[in-house]
TrEMBL record:
This is L-rhamnose isomerase/sugar isomerase. One of its GO terms (biological process) is L-lyxose metabolic process. Pfam families: RhaA. The keyword Manganese applies.
Length: 388
């Protein structure tokens, strides 16, 4: 029997990086709704992320997206974060908004466009050096809409060359993480559509290149925990972008659509050593809060990950292994389901109280008055927004 005391050290280590963009207004291609108190500057986004950490102690770092979070003085931004008890984390590049990237970026047929996209990544690496960030995360919108539109093979070769040039500037203490997504915005083919393509590309680069698995980036029905297992087995799972989806890349709160899938994913993370101290796996959220308040949306998200982690840690491994070896099909399944159905919320509430945290971070945040405070303070200026 695994008890809550057994799993406490692993819970203690849990850290989930928050995306700066989750605090901005977002929406769909139909409408971006605004929320009072939405940040107008990168500093305000960081201050909001820091609130999530203050109430949960689960989110010590904030990921930036460049140029959305471009500032003149990154050292000052870093100090601002530290004054709020968080650190700046992963830097996400962005080659999907400028007109020049209409037909692609790192995989584009025109060397001049590839040059611009490579230079953008080199700029991101410079920023990372300045703020002490480890990971450059690359997601590309590159792809085509119609069969025959471009040469699939040539594009893959261009991508490999572009990544090689970027990787040559990744320092010993930095990593390159390549995210995949099966479609959107391109609808016929995407240049990094799946884990296999990302794996092939990063394997060709070297030891400090990894794959990022965004849970919303697979076709419906995909067995995501199998991919988690395989990438961990191959030593190439660099990071997660957690979110949940009902249909496509919905970017909803992680664990909201399918808590059991999140549980199964974390079971494989634990099985593959992804929660160990020296694990290369960075846990991040990649979400949009289109209709709900953003700070509570992020608090709910990190708590969902923590609750599923606790349940996954409670799996009785020795009993499960014994049942598997005996081909006790229903016994093995029952052991997994026992852990999944364990309500860990009361134990987590006491665990938090023992650490000086609110037993119910959601309720404590809502009672704090912060939401009306930021709504009153943040008047004038332009709220930050983007639409997926
Ligand atoms: C793309 O859908 C994605 O998941 C990538 O991670 C981007 O960086 C993020 O969304 C924000 O656009
Ligand atoms: Mn993502
Ligand atoms: Mn996405």
């Amino acid at each position: 029997m695994t008890t809550f005391a057994d799993i406490a050290p692993a819970l203690e280590r849990q850290a989930i990086e928050l995306p700066s963009w989750a605090f901005g207004n977002s929406g769909t291609r139909f409408k971006v709704f605004t929320t009072p108190g939405t940040p107008r500057t990168p500093e305000e986004k960081i201050a909001d992320a820091a609130k999530v950490n203050e109430y949960t102690a689960l989110a010590p770092t904030v990921a930036l997206h460049i140029p959305w979070d471009m500032v003149d003085d990154f050292a000052a931004l870093s100090r601002f974060a530290e004054d709020h008890n968080v650190k700046l984390g992963t830097v996400n590049s962005n080659t999907f908004q400028d007109d020049v990237y209409k037909f692609g970026s790192l995989a584009h047929s025109d060397p001049a466009v590839r040059r611009k996209a490579i230079d953008h990544h080199l700029k991101c690496l410079e920023i990372m050096t300045e703020i002490g960030s480890r990971d450059l995360k690359i997601w590309l919108a590159d792809g085509t809409n119609y069969p025959g539109q471009d040469d699939l093979r040539a594009r893959q070769d261009h991508l490999a060359e572009s990544l090689q040039e970027i990787y040559s500037q990744v320092s010993e203490t930095q990593r390159l993480v390549l995210e995949y997504k099966f479609f959107e915005p391109a609808f016929y083919h995407t240049d990094v559509p799946d884990w296999g393509t990302s794996f092939a590309q990063v394997s060709a680069l070297g030891d400090r290149a990894y794959t990022c698995l965004d849970t919303g980036h697979h076709a419906p029905g995909t067995n995501i925990e199998f991919i988690v297992m395989q990438l961990l087995r191959l030593g190439k799972l660099g990071s997660f972008d957690f979110n949940s989806r009902f249909y496509a890349d919905d970017d909803l709160i992680v664990g909201a659509a399918d808590p059991f899938q999140l549980f199964r994913i974390i079971v494989e993370v634990i099985r593959g050593g992804g929660l160990e101290v020296d694990s290369p796996v960075q846990f991040m959220l990649d979400q949009c809060h289109n209709v709900e308040d953003k700070i509570p949306g992020q608090i709910r998200s990190v708590l969902n990950v923590q609750e599923m982690t606790a349940r996954a840690l409670l799996v009785d491994r020795p009993a499960l292994t014994a049942a598997q070896e005996a081909h006790d099909v229903l016994g093995a399944n029952g052991i997994l389901m026992d852990a999944f159905y364990t309500d860990v919320r009361p134990a987590l509430a006491s665990w938090r109280e023992e650490r000086g945290l609110p037993a119910d971070p959601m309720a404590a945040y809502l009672a704090s008055g912060n939401q009306s405070k930021i709504a009153a303070e943040r008047v004038g200026g332009t709220q930050l927004s983007w639409s997926a």
